[in-house]
Design goal:
The chain is α/β, with parallel strands linked by helices. It is about 25% helix and about 20% strand. The structure holds flavin-adenine dinucleotide (FAD). Its cofactor is FAD. Pfam families: GMC_oxred_C (PF05199), GMC_oxred_N (PF00732).
Length: about 625
C-alpha cells in the first residue's frame, strides 16, 4: 500500500473521523487514519451498555482505570473508552448537547482567538441534522427546543427519545423542579442551559439507531479514495525528524510508527503534511510523551529522550464526577426500561417492537431528562458563603502555577448564574449495582454530577512500553473540602427537597441509597465512598498560551513542533458544564478548517520559492 500521506490522523474516534472527513473533502489531498480498534457497528439498539450496571463490552473498551483516588476512599475507578472505529462516540450515551455561551467564550478569554460560542455553535450546527420530537412528546415530556438553535442537513442525525415510561415520572420531575424555582428550559441548545430540560441525542429518527461517523459520513461502502482507514493499528509514537529543521528550532513530524499484526510498521507525511493526534484525553498525552514531547524530567525517568520540553503535557486533566441516589417507585406505575433483562415477557415484547416497528424501550436513550443549575439555587445563602470562603483558601494552591489565570476565571464564573455547576439527571431504572432490584418493582436513579470541578488531575505514561495503559489520576474531589461539601449539599437537595416536593414525591415509595434519613456526615461519607467518573475527561493537552499551561496553540499545533497537531477532547482548556461529544466534534471540524488552510498557505509559499533547495529529511525508524 501507500506509505506517504498529506495528513496522518492518529485515532479514528469521535474527533478523528470528523477531522478525516473534513480534510479528505479535497480529493487531491491524501489522508490516513490509524485506529487501534476495529470496525464494529454499534447501532443495533439504542440501549448503551451503561444500563447493564456500568459494565462495558470488553471487546471494544480500553478498560482504563484510575490510580487510587485519594479523596474517594482510595478507590480505583473504571474509565470506559471506546476502542473501535468511531471511538467513544460508538459506545457513549449519545446526548448531543451544547454548553452555556459564557463557557465557550471563556476559551477565547484564556488566549484562544476565534474559539467562542459563535464558532463552536456554528460548527455543531454544521454537523447536525435535527428532527424535532412529535408535538405530543414536546408537550408532555418537554422534548422541545427552538428549531433555530439546531442545524439541518448535517451528517449527524439528532432527535429525541420516544419512550418515556413510566409516563407520570418525567412530567412530575419537571413540575417538582419548577415548584422549587427551577424553570423548564425550552431553548437549552441556544447558549442558556439553566433549568430542567430534555436532551436531544445522536439518534437516527428514521431507523432509531445510533448516529455517528461510522454509519453516516464514513460508512465503509462509500469511503473516499483519498481517505485510507487502517484499523487494528496501534500507534506507538510520532516519528520526528532528526534535525530541528525550521529556523525557529521547531521539530518536524515526519510520520508515525505503529504496531499491526504484531509487526512494527510506519507511514510518513508528505513534505507539507501534518500529523494530527486524536487518541483521546487519556492517550494523546501518552503518545506525545512516547515521541519525546513532554515534561523532560518525567521523560528522563522513563528513559525517553526529550525532544521538546513541554511540562504541560498530561496536566490540567478535568473530569466530571458524580454520585447516585436511588428510589423505589410506588406500585401501579407500570414497567419501565428498568425491567429489561429482568422481566422476560417485557423484554421479549420490547425486542419485537424494536425489530418490527423501531419503537419501544430499545428505540430510545433513557435518562435524557436533566436539570442544570448554579449552586446558589440549591445551597442556602449562608452555607454558600462559608463554602466559597473555604474554596478561596484551597485555591491558593494554584498561586504562581501556570493555571492561576484559568482558576481565577473559573472562580469568577461561580457568580455567573448563566453557567451551570451541578446536573441532576433522571434515570428511569435502578443504576446502583449495590442495591438489589426486586422483580415487579420500578425504580429511579437521580445522578448528581459536578460539572465544573476545580480539581486538576494528570495523565502520564507509565513506562516507555507503548502498549501499557497510562497512569490516570483525575484527582476526583481534589479540592476536597469544597467539592465534597457541594456534592453532599446536592445529595441533600435530592433527598430532602426534590423528592419531597409534589408531584414527584407522590410517586416515590422509598429512598434506597444513600439510605433514607442519612445525616449530613453520612451523606458526606457516601460521596467520599461512591463518587465515580461521569466520563467527560478533557484538558490534558490544553489549548492555552504556553506559559499558562498550554500544549497546543490556537491553531492546535503542539508548541515546539512544526506540523504536529492535537484535535480531540484533550485540547479543551477549561471544562464545560455539559456532555462533551458535540463540542469535541465541533472542535475537530474547526481543526480540519485550520489544518487545511495551513496546508494550502504552505503550497502558495512553495510556489513562490520553487527552485529553492529543500533539505532532505532524515528519518530514524
Ligand atoms: C460511557 C460514556 C458515556 C458518554 N456519554 C456521552 C453522552 O451521552 N454525550 C456526550 O456528549 N458525551 C458523552 N461521553 C463523552 C464523549 O463520548 C467523549 O467526550 C468523546 O467521545 C471523546 O472523543 P475523542 O475523540 O476525544 O476520543 P475517542 O472518541 O475516545 O477517540 C480516541 C480514539 O483513538 C483511538 N486510539 C487511542 N490510542 C491509540 C493509539 N495509540 N493508536 C491508534 N488509535 C488509538 C481509540 O481507540 C479511539 O478510537 C461519554 C463517554 C463515555 C466513556
Amino acid at each position: 500500500g501507500r506509505t506517504a500521506y498529506d495528513h496522518i490522523i492518529v485515532g479514528g474516534g469521535s474527533a478523528g473521523l470528523v477531522l478525516a472527513e473534513r480534510l479528505s473533502r479535497d480529493p487531491t489531498v491524501s489522508v490516513a487514519v490509524l485506529e487501534a480498534g476495529s470496525l464494529t457497528e454499534q447501532n443495533r439498539t439504542l440501549i448503551p451498555a451503561l444500563y447493564s450496571g456500568f459494565i462495558w463490552d470488553p471487546e471494544i473498551d480500553w478498560r482504563f482505570t484510575t490510580v487510587p483516588q485519594k479523596h474517594v476512599s482510595d478507590n480505583v475507578l473504571l474509565l470506559p473508552r471506546g476502542k473501535t472505529l468511531g471511538g467513544t462516540a460508538a459506545v457513549n450515551g449519545m446526548y448531543f448537547v451544547r454548553a452555556a455561551k459564557n463557557e465557550y467564550d471563556a476559551w477565547e478569554t484564556l488566549g484562544n482567538p476565534g474559539w467562542n460560542w459563535d464558532t463552536v455553535n456554528a460548527n455543531i450546527k454544521a454537523l447536525e441534522n435535527f428532527i424535532p420530537a412529535s408535538s405530543k412528546d414536546a408537550k408532555t415530556f418537554h422534548a422541545t427546543d427552538s428549531a433555530s438553535n439546531h442545524g439541518k442537513g448535517g451528517p449527524i442525525e439528532v432527535t429525541y427519545s420516544t419512550y418515556w415510561e413510566p409516563a407520570p415520572l418525567i412530567p412530575a420531575y419537571f413540575s417538582s423542579f419548577n415548584a422549587l424555582g427551577i424553570p423548564t428550559n425550552k431553548h437549552a441548545s441556544g447558549g442558556d442551559t439553566i433549568g430542567v430540560w430534555q436532551a436531544p441525542c445522536a439518534i437516527d429518527a428514521e431507523n432509531r439507531s445510533r448516529s455517528y461517523a461510522v454509519n453516516t459520513f464514513l460508512h465503509p461502502n462509500d469511503r473516499r479514495e483519498n481517505l485510507h482507514i487502517i484499523t487494528g493499528a496501534h500507534v506507538t509514537r510520532t516519528i520526528l525528524a532528526d534535525e530541528q529543521l525550521s529556523k525557529a528550532g521547531d521539530v518536524r513530524a515526519v510520520g508515525v510508527q505503529y504496531i499491526a499484526d504484531n509487526e512494527t510498521r510506519s507511514i510518513h507525511v508528505t513534505e507539507r503534511g501534518h500529523v494530527v493526534i486524536t487518541a483521546g484525553t487519556y492517550q494523546t498525552p501518552k503518545l506525545l510523551e512516547l515521541s519525546g514531547i513532554g515534561n523532560a524530567s518525567i521523560l528522563k525517568e522513563k528513559g525517553i529522550t526529550a525532544r521538546v520540553d513541554l511540562p504541560a503535557v498530561g496536566e490540567n486533566l478535568q473530569d466530571h464526577v458524580g454520585v447516585l441516589s436511588c428510589f423505589e417507585l410506588k406500585d401501579g406505575l407500570g414497567p419501565s426500561v428498568g425491567a429489561l433483562n429482568v422481566d422476560s415477557e417485557y423484554t421479549a415484547q420490547q425486542w419485537e417492537l424494536y425489530t418490527e416497528e423501531r419503537k419501544g424501550a430499545l428505540a430510545s436513550v433513557h435518562g435524557t431528562t436533566v436539570a442544570m443549575i448554579p449552586f446558589q439555587k440549591i445551597i442556602k445563602a449562608d452555607t454558600w458563603t462559608t463554602l466559597k470562603a473555604s474554596l478561596d483558601k484551597s485555591l491558593q494552591q494554584f498561586r504562581g502555577t501556570p493555571y492561576e489565570k484559568q482558576i481565577a476565571l473559573q472562580r469568577s464564573q461561580l457568580d455567573d448564574e448563566s453557567i451551570p455547576q451541578i446536573e441532576f439527571v433522571l434515570l428511569p431504572m435502578l443504576a446502583d449495582p449495590t442495591v438489589k432490584a426486586e422483580p415487579n418493582r420500578s425504580y429511579i436513579t437521580i445522578g448528581t454530577v459536578l460539572l465544573r470541578p476545580f480539581a486538576r488531575g494528570s495523565v502520564h505514561l507509565e513506562s516507555d512500553d507503548p502498549l501499557k495503559h497510562p497512569l490516570i489520576d483525575p484527582n476526583y474531589l481534589g479540592i476536597t473540602e469544597f467539592e465534597t461539601a457541594v456534592m453532599t449539599e446536592a445529595l441533600k437537595f435530592v433527598a430532602e427537597s426534590l423528592t419531597q416536593t409534589k408531584p414527584l414525591s407522590t410517586l416515590i415509595a422509598a429512598q434506597l441509597s444513600p439510605p433514607s434519613g442519612s445525616s449530613h456526615a453520612e451523606l458526606e461519607a457516601f460521596v467520599q465512598q461512591r463518587a465515580f467518573s461521569v466520563w467527560h475527561p478533557a484538558g490534558s493537552a490544553s489549548m492555552l498560551p504556553k506559559e499558562e499551561g498550554g500544549v497546543v496553540d490556537p491553531q492546535l499545533k503542539v508548541y515546539g513542533t512544526e506540523n504536529l497537531h492535537v484535535a480531540d477532547a484533550s485540547i479543551i482548556p477549561l471544562q464545560i458544564g455539559t456532555h462533551t461529544m458535540a463540542t469535541v466534534y465541533a472542535n475537530a471540524l474547526r481543526a480540519g478548517e485550520i489544518i487545511e488552510k495551513i496546508y494550502h498557505d504552505a503550497a502558495d509559499v512553495n510556489k513562490d520559492t520553487e527552485d529553492s533547495q529543500q533539505k532532505p529529511i532524515h528519518v530514524e525508524l
